[in-house]
Amino acid sequence: MPTNFTVVPVEDVKASGSGEATAEGSSKPISLGKIFRENDDDVDTLQGPDSGDESQKESTPFFDSDNDTKNYYDDKNMALYEEEMDSTPMVSSLLNKLSNYTNLFPGVCEHEETEDGCRRVTATVPQMGTFIGVFLPCLQNILGVILFLRLTWIVGTAGILGSFAIVFMCCVCTLLTAISMSAIATNGVVPAGGAYYMISRSLGPEFGGAVGLCFYLGTTFAGSLYILGTIEILLIYIVPTATVFKGHDGDAMPNNMRIYGTCCLALMALVVFVGVKYVNKLALVFLSCVILSIMATYAGVIRTIIEPPEFNVCLLGNRSLKNENFEVCAKKEVIKNTTITTELWNHFCNSKHLNATCDDYFTLNELTEIQAIPGLLSGVIKDNLWGEYAPAGMTIEKKNQSSVPTQEPTTDRDDIYLFNDINTYFTLLVGIYFPSVTGIMAGSNRSGDLRDAKRSIPIGTILAILTTSFIYISCVVLFGACIEGVVLRDKFGYSVKKNPVIGILAWPSPWVIVIGSFFSCSGAGLQSLTGAPRLLQAIARDGIVPFLRYHVSNKIHRSTKHSGSLHKDQANGEPTWALLLTVGICEIGILIASLDAVAPILSMFFLMCYLFVNLACAIQTLLRTPNWRPRFRFYHWTLSFLGMSLCLSLMFICSWYYALVAIVIAGCIYKYIEYRGAVKEWGDGIRGLSLNAARYALIRLEESPLHTKNWRPQILVMCKLDSDLAVKHPRLLSFTTQLKAGKGLTIVSTVLEGTFMTREDEAKTAEQNLKAAMVAERTKGFSHAVVSSNLRDGFSILIQSAGLGGMKHNTVLMAWPVTWRQAQNSTATRNFIETVRETTAANQALLVAKNIDSFPGNQQRLEGGTIDVWWIVHDGGLLMLLPFLLSQHKVWRKCKMRVFTVAQLNDNSIQMKKDLQMFIYHLRLDAKVEVVEMHDSDISAFTYEKTLRMEQRTEMLKQMQLSRTEREREVRTLDKSFAQLIHDRNTASHSTSDREAGASPERVHMTWTKEKLLNEKNRQRESIGQVKDMFNMKPNQSNVRRMHTAVKLNEVVVKKSRDSQLVLLNMPGPPKNMKGDANYMEFLEALMEGLDRVLLVRGGGREVITIYS
């Protein structure tokens, strides 16, 4: 037989070597590499999973590096793989460790063991099989309070056919859920946490946390249900005289339930707090009570064939009466030839005399006594096939029984009749019944204690569901075939001497059912109060819910550092704070004081949990992820979807408003975890579903070109880093956030100079810094750091390859290189201009922000002002679109848009303004329009002089660059000559070493030749001549005209837009001749001079805004 093992959630110890035992309920899997670092004798070096909460994802590598095994494979015959031995162990060692590994935590002592004074030192292999470990726990959790207290009433109200439909729907729902759960549970190890662990690891932490908390709330309200059932049995059937509030009014019994329920809850919480071992040891006793009660019921059914029980029901007309206060079902009786009145006569009449005035209905109708349990062969099954739904306050009446109705109003004498206490309808009965089929997760919750969990969980759970389904369905049929309808509809058994209806059917005595159901409900309540806190603790220790992490899990760990009773309890794994929270929530259910009102509440939470179990299985099956390899083969995604649909339908069938409340609660928890929870990477199905959806969407985007109406800026942000690899201009990211508002694609990138092998760590650090800056500036998108041999190539790589498929950037955003004049070489200028050229060649838009550090941050609010658009040339309409996008953000929302355009001498400025206003109107933009006239004028001396200084500076920088280049070339030539000389000398010395060992070494002379001297003098003479020519040069006329345009346009822009919040300008294209690159930068500087915030915009060569809908 193969050895079975289970990996448990443990962490490495701290440096001090002290460890804390991991409490049951942890759900973080261990990295297998840690198994190899464990010492077989070191059993106390484990730490709880809470220590790893700060990590952003689980321990996912299959192996971890281990320095202790560095020399393990020395002198072995596997030298070919010796380089890998530091990080990957040999298979033989791996299998040996895994075969000896156990799911039990070495050094961990359970709470009950600590109470006995023992200390576990070595781990033992679990020995629980399918029957003890799965089947019986599921049987105990499924069979319970509803079977004994409400099933007969459901059969009487809904009829045999309606009850069969209810039971069948609920059992099919749990069976389909069990199939999905079996597939998930056999697809790897399921530690404590059960359904929470399966859902969270299959659907992600958000769904897992939301559904886990809903499952916790369901388990907690189940405790309320069982406690209310216990108190109902106690006060109605066992000690009816113990009520605190007397009377028959509607508030007396609920108040008694609240008082005794609260006391019972406190007692059970105390038992769980100080004696969990007794709860576990008594579980078999409680299960025995359930089984004995069911056997007594079947025995009573068989007995009805031979001799029906002697229980009779008294009817007045067709109305059923409470017979707890009278013995004779008659108006008068003859005793010793004397006619006397009975207790019923005294109740309905104003005196004991025969001539007394009596109730009209009592006078007109006769009293009849019928058998409460006619028996299996009596044919009563025909009368019980169909339901008898009725509103609250209506008397329980027998069908086909003659009666004389009266118009008399209700009096105080009517308290002897049996009434419906609540409105009855089919969907209500579904909600009340469904808790009786919950409990199918009991086996998966014990997966760590099973000998073969992958075999036991499916077989035990499905077998338990089939067994309990047979019990419920057979009980529905047998109850309807044996018991009279008016008795079935008697919820509390008042018509049969205050005995439970199922009790009068049982053999040998109703007390078998009373005692059995009492202990069954008590045990189930204790089990709920034991399991719910541990489930909450498992969620808290995963760290996905910040509130629980700091108020439940952390308090446990802090308290272990101190002494006292609190330390003694919590240090041994008792989730005391979780228990207190559970008791508080459970008290809410008890204050409701109605088993029928609490049952639909917990039905919602359990149905939601089962829904997501089915969803998890369906998603994993459809995605066909490589890790989805369950050993349980009898599942299909259609069954999972059917189970999910059935769960959702049952939620709204039970109670549509409870269903909406449960969905809202789960949704709020989901969003809370999404925004505030810890980031976890568990390889969940939702992540795989997102990847598949993204792949599908990207392929669809590639199928057809993007329409103008769908165009939006997908921005590639070029960031510059400082010496510490931090973002130099974070306001660039702020501006991106304001421009994008989280819509579309944003890629924040940077380039590091060097090789990836040498700067790998710096690249990772840079990418992390980019992500941190994006979070700080609320920029939603992706970060990417590229390492290239030079910055120019890095920028080119990003422009060409950033993005994927249809989700590629169409706009590049960068900051204006402020220090381009101060640079020692022209690298910064060349990089910037080449970036402009490449974006133009790639048909991408370009945005260049000047004085980016003065742009408003995301927290600022501009109180007015304008965004001025200077529309000089039309290159796609991006200039019009950008102000609209900015105005959608709260920073720029109060700014008005103004559009300026330039009219030449031959243009009709008035008509231009009208046309522009109409164009803006058709674009559905709210903007003020203005046409600025710029007539031809003579070139000023200032412009001429500015152009001359520009060209002189450019020429001087060129000469300096040439001189530097020649010096570098000369040095390289000398280095090559010297290296060649040394090589020749070494070659000659080696060849003659034997013959000329005593010869003196050859001397090397480095001298200037005559040719080199003449060349150097000519070069210096040319340099002096070029400097003289530079001061006598005249500026190029083309440059003068360009400078003139820049200066004149700048004057107009400064005059009109000096006080505006932002100025958008058309960015002129770079010169085709690369010799004019430096002049191009001067033109741009002249164009933007005197303006604070400027955004240069260059379109991508396509229309991005349209007047059509």
Automatic annotation (TrEMBL):
Subcellular location: Cell membrane
Domain called SLC12A transporter C-terminal: residue spans: 730-847, 848-1109
Positions of region (Disordered): 1-70, 983-1005
Catalytic activity field: K(+)(in) + chloride(in) = K(+)(out) + chloride(out)
Cross-referenced InterPro entries: AA-permease/SLC12A_dom, KCL_cotranspt, SLC12_C, SLC12A_fam
Keywords: Cell membrane, Chloride, Glycoprotein, Ion transport, Membrane, Phosphoprotein, Potassium, Potassium transport, Symport, Transmembrane, Transmembrane helix, Transport
Membrane-spanning residues: 128-149, 161-184, 196-218, 225-245, 257-276, 283-306, 425-444, 456-481, 501-526, 577-595, 601-623, 635-659
Top-rank taxon: Eukaryota
GO cellular component: plasma membrane; synapse
GO molecular function, one term: potassium:chloride symporter activity
Comp. bias (Low complexity): 15-27
A Pfam family it matches: SLC12
Record domain Amino acid permease/ SLC12A: where: 133-306, 428-716
A single BP term in Gene Ontology: potassium ion homeostasis
Record membrane topology: Multi-pass membrane protein
The family this protein is said to belong to: Belongs to the SLC12A transporter family. K/Cl co-transporter subfamily.
NCBIfam families reported for this sequence: 2a30
Protein name: Solute carrier family 12 member 7-like
